[in-house]
């Protein structure tokens, strides 16, 4: 969406709530917790604040059924859209948490990947570099720029660091709906692609891996996994485009 000044205020407030909740859920990611318990915590924190979970009962185009949880929990080789359930988190896992909320009618979307206790060096590096790829993508946003600027910036980080890049999935417009046009690919050529306009609200979300970038859909119909079983990390912010750059709303 293109947000008015008043709408940006609402998105900023919603984004701050979302970031605080995600930080709180991240502290609950410990050995022994189930992914369903993390979902319950996220759901309760959102509703306690008077907001609505954006993903609960959300049915994207093409999906067979609506998503039955508030939080996507994607562990190790799970890339995104992990369906919470009885899986028990163990030491050494890396856990991606993706959450959206609706505050005063407007949606924000955010994701982080957290290490569980001591993780191997490769996994720690994957997390750090995926976070950096997100910041590089956001850093390429400006009014008058192109979406290819964002994809090129994200892809450059993955290429230089020799990490896998998931290109079948990407970011999106957000605000009035949880997923809006345009798609924001995590690959591209600077100066190419759709034009970026001031006050546009976008979710930028790189997914990097320790292997290849090809994904497959799990038999649960929701969870995307790396095809080669390698670990994946995912970070996402909602940002509003400004004349000189952008403002991250999910902080
Ligand atoms: Mg998203």
Descriptive account of the structure:
It is a single chain. Helix 1 runs antiparallel to helix 2 and helix 3 runs antiparallel to helix 4. The chain has a five-stranded antiparallel sheet with strand order 8-7-9-14-15. Strands 1, 2, 4 and 5 form a four-stranded antiparallel sheet that branches. It contains four helices and 15 strands. It is α+β, with helices and mostly antiparallel strands and 251 residues long. The relative contact order is 0.19. Magnesium ion binds next to loops.
Set down the secondary structure blueprint.
Blueprint: H1 5-27, H2 35-48, E1 52-53, E2 71-75, E3 78-80, E4 94-103, E5 106-115, H3 121-139, H4 147-160, E6 164-165, E7 171-173, E8 180-184, E9 201-204, E10 207-209, E11 215-217, E12 224-226, E13 232-234, E14 237-241, E15 246-248
Antiparallel strand pairs: 1-4, 2-4, 3-12, 4-5, 6-10, 7-8, 7-9, 9-14, 10-13, 11-12, 14-15
Helix pairs in contact: 1-2, 3-4
């Amino acid at each position: 969406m293109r947000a008015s000044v008043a709408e940006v205020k609402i998105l900023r407030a919603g984004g701050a709530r979302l970031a605080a909740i995600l930080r709180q859920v991240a502290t609950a990611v410990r050995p022994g917790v189930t992914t369903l318990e993390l979902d319950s915590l996220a759901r309760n924190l959102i509703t306690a604040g008077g907001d609505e979970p954006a993903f609960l009962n959300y049915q994207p185009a093409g999906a067979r059924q609506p998503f039955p949880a508030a939080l996507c929990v994607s562990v190790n080789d799970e890339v995104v859209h992990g369906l919470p359930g009885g899986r028990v988190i163990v030491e050494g896992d890396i856990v991606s948490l993706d959450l959206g909320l609706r505050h005063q009618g407007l949606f924000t979307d955010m994701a982080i990947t957290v290490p569980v206790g001591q993780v191997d060096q490769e996994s720690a590096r994957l997390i750090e570099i995926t976070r950096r790829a997100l910041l590089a993508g956001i850093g390429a946003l400006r009014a008058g720029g192109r979406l290819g600027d964002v994809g090129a910036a994200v892809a450059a980080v993955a290429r230089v660091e020799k990490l896998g890049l998931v290109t079948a999935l990407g970011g999106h417009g957000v605000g009035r709906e949880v997923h809006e046009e345009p798609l924001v690919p995590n690959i591209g050529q600077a100066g190419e692609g759709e034009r970026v306009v001031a006050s546009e609200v976008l979710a930028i979300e790189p997914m990097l891996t320790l292997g290849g970038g090809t994904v497959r859909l799990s038999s649960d119909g929701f969870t995307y996994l790396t095809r080669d079983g390698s670990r994946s990390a995912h970070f996402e912010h909602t940002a509003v485009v400004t004349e000189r750059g952008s403002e991250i709303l999910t902080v």
